Amino acid sequence: MQLFIYGALIFLASGLGGAIPILFPGIHETHLKRYVSFGAGLLLGMALLHMVPEAAIWLPHTFGIWLAAGFVLLLILERFMMVHSCEEHGCSYHHIGIAAFLGLSVHGIIEGFALASSVVAAPELGPMIFIAILAHKVPAAFTLSTLLRLAGKSNKQITLFIIGLSLSGPLGIAMAQLLINLDGMEHATGALLALSSGTFLYISACDLLPELHSNHADRFARLGFFLVGLALCGLVTHAH
């Protein structure tokens, strides 16, 4: 019952964060791009302060290989396979939104694994890990929804993506309950976590951080949003 409640609350938190840009469509593009800078800080912080250290625990000797593989994989997909011929406004955000969805979903599944594993192995840590996960679900889903909106996705399409993201945590919890005693789970968990860390590093450094330089007049505001996202991850990691 405890894990069911955790999964339901994680689902609702993600849905709430993703719904904000849909419910308030009048948000100006300048503000949306500030939130993109916030998302860059959030993804970079999640990767460097949370996901990479966790991957190092699960897979201490080879996590770096999977980290580099995630970075290079997204580089290849974006530069050589995700080629868009459109001239539509916001076209550059199309593949970023999809990549962010995949990375956040993988991360959500891993978080579900970690939460369910902690409840089984060390029940006293369960509430702390749950709070740490819940703390960044709203801003992460908000960031994804913002990217998809900038890419020109319809509200229906954004809603489907957010539902998919919201289901990733509960899915991870369910999978962990089925696989908790299987051999090789630690290796698979560490590999997936490091792989998704590499994708987050690429998205934040190569796709989102350039937004800090795209508008000279607004650069200090965007830097501030970036630092807030980074600081939030630091607080969540410390709480964890």
Describe, in short, the structure shown.
The protein is mainly α and 240 residues long.
Characterization of this structure:
The longest helix has 30 residues, at 29-58. The chain has one domain. The protein has helices at 2-23, 29-58, 63-81, 94-121, 126-150, 155-179, 185-208, 219-239. The radius of gyration is 17 Å and the shape is globular. With 240 residues, it is mostly helical. The chain is built from eight helices and no strands. The chain starts with a helix and ends with a helix.
Estimate nothing, just give the exact number of structural domains. Answer: 1
Mean pLDDT: 78
Instruction: State which percent range the strand residues make up.
Output: under 5%
What oligomeric assembly is this protein in? single chain
* Count of alpha and pi helical runs: 8
What would the principal axes of the Cα set say about the shape?
globular
- Number of distinct beta strands: 0
Largest sheet: none
> SSE order, as H and E?
HHHHHHHH
Are there runs of 5+ residues with pLDDT below 50, and where? 82-91
Which structural class fits the helix and strand makeup? mainly alpha
Helical content class: over 70%
Rounded to the nearest angstrom, the distance between the terminal CA atoms is 22 Å
Radius of gyration: 17 Å
